[in-house]
UniProtKB/TrEMBL annotation:
This is long-chain-alcohol O-fatty-acyltransferase. It is a multi-pass membrane protein. Keywords: Acyltransferase, Lipid biosynthesis, Lipid metabolism, Membrane, Transferase, Transmembrane, Transmembrane helix. The keyword Isomerase does not apply. The keyword Acyltransferase applies. It catalyses: a long chain fatty alcohol + a fatty acyl-CoA = a long-chain alcohol wax ester + CoA. The lineage of its organism: Eukaryota, Viridiplantae, Streptophyta, Embryophyta, Tracheophyta. It is found in: Membrane.
Amino acid sequence: MEAELRNFILVWLSAIVFVSYCYYVSPKIKAGVFRFLSVLPVCALFLVLPLFFSSVHFSSSTAFYLSGFANLKLILFAFDQGPLLPLPPNLVHFICFTCFPIKLQQNPNSQNRFHKRAFAFRLFLFFLVLHVYKYSQTLPHYVLLGLCFVHLYLELEILLAPLKFLLSITLGCDLEPQFNEPYLATSLQDLWGRRWNLMVSAIFRSGVYNPVRGASRGLINSSWARFMGFFVTFLVSGLFHELVYFYITREAPKWEVTLFFVLNGVCTGTEVAVKRTVFFQRRLPVRPVVSWLLTMGFVAVTGGLLYFPQFIRSGMMERRANETLFFIDFVKRKFSIF
């Protein structure tokens, strides 16, 4: 654990140094190909950094934050696009907005508060889930699939919500929430666009969806351009998740996760196209409870068939649970010394 912590500190210190270079040097270069070439070595380095870890948490978080979010933000920044523009007022702001999944809140409201009771309840459920893995060998397969989904969602909420709250205090600004009650989604568009991992949605919208849709408009009509935007965005998301999975397991991809995202992209694009038809708007109103059941059922079935099986086969979620419990014991031992 101590060796992993040292690696973690060194990796993130090096990331801060290279992001500082992007802040001081790259803006002096005209936006376009030459600025892109100036940030390209940093992007290449960020693709290598997750390989320095054997820990599931350190490799996956570094992959998401640096190999994924930071790289895409820097590429957009090279072409005067994305969340790094206008240029943040100081280096600390630039580092935080580059390396972490945060975004300035356009309309500040009470969502910026840290909801202690909700967080405590999620934390309680999370610890229950961690201890259920002790019985994973005897659990039915469908229960294990559900356990993986709950584990993943709770861990993301527990890690990202305090991070967002602390960074909002440090930076002195209101930040967008990372999740918006995804379990209440009443459509695939609602789930992926307005409720699940909102920072990822915002980055892919500006970095993939909008450029693909804009480029396609000159070749096909607007409806098909919109569909192509959904398809390519979900395809890129699937490939990125395969890359993160490789960082964690060092195994060749099975392409199940990519298929999961492509299928969701095709169905999301189809859903949006159908909802825009006059026939649907006038004659096929769907009750919210029905659309909620259809949405959750679709995600549960496709996730159970394509997304989570490789997590179970590789034992990745059990490794995450064991690492979490080991880290808690490690902290307890360190504090007991004092």
